[in-house]
């Protein structure tokens, strides 16, 4: 397993430790609001353990992926609002 991987966050390329969570990659990119509530308020990670669902982002085109629950992979494309 490589020690570092390259991911894209909203089109911006970042190099991250391979074991870093997607949530960590987003924080490294300076992204704090990962999605919007139905009323338009920014939402971000709360629990960090897969329960609150507030960290949902689009990963490689798949919506509603919990950013705190999986690690970065080489070439991963992460999108959030
Ligand atoms: S931070 Fe709560 S599910 Fe990811």
Describe this structure in words.
The protein is mainly β. The protein has a single domain, classed as Roll (Ubiquitin-like (UB roll)), CATH 3.10.20.30. The protein contains one helix and seven strands. A five-stranded mixed β-sheet has the order 2-1-7-5-6, with helices on one face. It has a two-stranded antiparallel ribbon with strand order 3-4. The protein is globular and about 40 Å long. The mean pLDDT is 91. The site of FE2/S2 (inorganic) cluster has 12 residues, from loops.
3D shape: globular
Order of helices and strands: EEHEEEEE
CATH C-level class is Alpha Beta
- Ligands present: FE2/S2 (inorganic) cluster
Radius of gyration: 12 Å
- Number of structurally distinct domains: 1
Strand content: 25-35%
CATH architecture: Roll
Strand order, largest beta sheet:
2-1-7-5-6
The CATH homologous superfamily: Beta-grasp domain
Percent of residues in helices: under 10%
Mean pLDDT: 91
Report on the biggest sheet.
Answer: 5 strands, mixed
- The number of distinct β-strands equals 7
Which spans have pLDDT < 50 for at least 5 consecutive residues? none
Spatial separation of the terminal alpha carbons: 30 Å
* DSSP summary: helix tally: 1
| CATH fold call | Ubiquitin-like (UB roll)
Question: Given the helix and strand composition, which structural class is it?
Answer: mainly beta
């Amino acid at each position: 397993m490589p020690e570092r991987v390259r991911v894209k966050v909203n089109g911006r390329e970042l190099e991250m430790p391979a074991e870093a969570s997607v949530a960590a990659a987003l924080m490294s990119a300076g992204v704090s609001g990962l999605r919007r509530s139905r009323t338009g308020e920014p939402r971000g990670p709360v629990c960090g353990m897969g329960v609150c669902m507030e960290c949902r982002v689009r990963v490689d085109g798949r919506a509603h992926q919990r950013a705190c629950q999986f690690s970065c992979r080489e070439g991963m494309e992460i999108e959030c609002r």
